[in-house]
Amino acid sequence: MNKYQQIVYEIEQYIHEHNLEQGTKLDSLDTLTQRYNVSRSTISKALDTLEKRGAIFQQRGSGIFVRRQRREGYVSLLVNRGFSANFKDGATHYDVLKVEQTVADEDVANNLHIEVGAPVYLVERLVYLDDEKLCKELSYFPVSVVPYVNKEIAEQSIFHYLETAYKMNISFADVYLVIDQLNDAEADVLDLPPLSPGLYMEQVVYLATGIPFDYSKVVYHYKHAKFFVQSVNN
């Protein structure tokens, strides 16, 4: 995790832990620069990231202010740091259905920019939010970028593991959403009747270098999944 990303995380945590209301004024750019002992450009990059995420808004000449906090239990479509980053500590847990090394088919290879037949880790998990099934997730990680994943790692935040163990700088993602009906297998694992509606998400997550390291296919439980997007006009 880069220094500016650590600052983003700490400011977000401070806002949520202190339940700051919309319009609360935060410390100035100069104060934050001194507190974190970094350059103004690093703080500016952190603040720009927070603004794009909808956590703050900046008014030239007036200061930095908190935006309305997200509602509890909602998945942000702008946060690409995994499920654990969306919810308070302990709200999510994982039932790991499968972890294995396999080879990339054409679909996986195209999305991860690797050769067909290249080795990948396949991780299949059920994600729970407050003990209710939120979604089923199927993820592929290229072995050339992610050297090792096992069941113990998959039972926690994989992104946090990659940032900690391999110092990976997770940066941005492409997200695609489609609404369709669940097939029998999907309905069974989510405890829903066949042909129930489902929100399907495909996501490719990239490192700061532009290298894709995660291609995921997620199907959400329509009764338990709620989403939000906070936007800004640039």
From TrEMBL:
Molecular function terms, GO-annotated: DNA binding; DNA-binding transcription factor activity
Domain HTH gntR-type: 1-69
UniProt keywords, alphabetically: DNA-binding, Transcription, Transcription regulation
GO BP terms, alphabetized: negative regulation of DNA-templated transcription
Protein name: GntR family transcriptional regulator
Source organism per UniProt: Staphylococcus rostri
Entries under Pfam families matching the protein: GntR, UTRA
PANTHER family for the chain: HTH GNTR-TYPE DOMAIN-CONTAINING PROTEIN, MANNOSYL-D-GLYCERATE TRANSPORT/METABOLISM SYSTEM REPRESSOR MNGR-RELATED
Domain of life: Bacteria
